Structure formats: C-alpha cells, structure tokens
Amino acid sequence: MNKASNMAKGGMITALSIILLYFSSIMPTNKLSFIVVASFLIPIAIINLNFRTSVIIYSAISLLSLFLLPLKGISILYILFFGAYGFIKFLIEKIRKVPIEIFLKLVYFNIVLVILILLYKQFFATMIDIKYLTTYLVVSIILAQLLFMAYDYLVTLMIQRFSKFKF
Q1: In this predicted model, what pLDDT tens digit does every residue of 83-109 receive, in sequence order?
Q2: pTM
Q3: What are the C-alpha distances in Å from 61 to residues 16, 17, 38, 46, 155?
Q4: Is the separation of the CB atoms in 54 and 90 below 8 Å?
Q5: Which UniProt keywords are given for this protein, alphabetically ordered (predicted)?
Q6: How many separate domains does the chain show?
Q7: pLDDT digits (tens, 9 = 90+) for 116-167
Q8: 148 near 140, Cβ under 8 Å?
Q9: What is the CA radius of gyration of the chain?
C-alpha cells in the first residue's frame, strides 16, 4: 500500500475514534460501550494497514482526545488500556502459546488496573469513603478479571470477523 492511502485510512480511523470517544464523554449512558467500539479500530488498523501506521494512529487519537474530549478520564482510560490493548494483544499473540498469552494479558491488565486505581484514589480520595472502596476491592478486582477476559474474547471475535475484509 502506498503512503497516501495509509494516511487517508489512518485519518478516517482517527476521526471515527475521536467521534466515538466524544460520544462516550457526552452520553449519559453506555460510556464504556463507545470506548470499547473505539478500541476495536486499532486492531482493524493493524490488520489493514501496518503496525507502524497503527502506532501513529493511536498517538494521534491519544493526543486529540486529551485536547478535544470534555472528560479527560475517558482519554486516560483509552490511552492506558483500551487503545493500547490492540498492540499488546497483537504482540502477545505472536507467542502462540495460549497459557502464556493469557498470563501476559492478565499481567498487563492488572498493571493498568493498579495504575487506574491509584489515579482514582489520588484524584477522588476526598470524594469517596476509602473503607467502602477497600471492602469491595477484592470482589471488584475478581469481577474485573472476568470482564477483561470477556473483552479479550470479544476483541478476538472482532479480529476474526474483520481479518476477512480489507479496506
């Protein structure tokens, strides 16, 4: 593929991602759904373009989201987890050993989860009761692991579906 085609497709993916992230920040419900759909666009870019171009697309989406979105938490969530996960998944799944892949994905998820929890405590500690948070933290982390595995499976299904189509 030529560079002009990659640039045009990258611009479309970037614009669509920003629109989805913007919807996520202004809609009263289904915020996570829009972020998840936006996260599917990075693996699509990796499949249809190339890894390097996809990194540029991710960087553009990340920077634009920080400047354009009214809720910076959406940007941080996308930058730390949802946007980056397409690359992590791509690199980890090159190993081709499912138990190791699952372990590494869970390690990545838990690192991001700890970072997000620390950021949350840093910025919102005065707004919440810490005892309440720690009481349900273990249950929340276990539930988060299960939801992450479901998300990973959903991304896998999406990749299988879109790997058949080239744009």
Answers
A1: 999 999 999 999 999 999 999 999 999
A2: 0.89
A3: 10, 7, 10, 15, 19
A4: no
A5: Membrane, Transmembrane, Transmembrane helix
A6: 1
A7: 888 887 876 665 566 666 677 788 889 999 999 999 999 999 999 987 777 7
A8: no
A9: 17
Cα–Cα–Cα angle for 71, 147, 91, rounded to 5 degrees: 85
Look at residue 167 and tell me if it is in a domain: no
Distance in angstroms (rounded) separating the CA atoms of residues 63 and 61: 6
On whether residue 93 sits in a domain, the answer given is yes
- Domain ranges, residue 9: 3-162
- Residue 99 corresponds to which tokens in the numbers above? 């138990």
Residue carrying the six token digits 């996570």: 32
Residue with tokens 């629109």: 19
Amino acid at 60: A
Sign of CA dihedral 13, 81, 139, 30: negative
